[in-house]
Amino acid sequence: xxxxxxxxxxxxxxxxxxxxxxxxxxxxxxxxxxxxxxxxxxxxxxxxxxxxxxxxxxxxxxxxxxxxxxxxxxxxxxxxxxxxxxxxxxxxxxxxxxxxxxxxxxxxxxxxxxxxxxxxxxxxxxxxxxxxx
Length: 133
Hints:
Layout: E1 2-7, E2 12-17, H1 20-23, E3 34-36, E4 46-54, E5 69-70, E6 73-74, E7 89-90, E8 93-94, E9 102-111, H2 117-120
């Protein structure tokens, strides 16, 4: 499971992979709940869940309770791209609860810890075996 966290002050985002042992701390949480950052390795931080998606890329909707999949009639995002006024469509979406099928959890930092922000958003270093140019 991946946790994507973003900082609204700087506009930067990063992601961290969560180990299988720590996934149990997240299962059962819902969209807009605030979780402790230590569950994903960000000690002292508080993260607000803003969205979910499963391994097939199916987005979640706040209105759909539980972990089930549904095909509601939608007129806006998430689930519909570029909807015009009055346009509605049935689309497959997931419920608002994190389950074992969830592959990505989108979050926003709401409370900052002692670790500096610049350390959280470090660019990835290139591996030595990769060719430059």
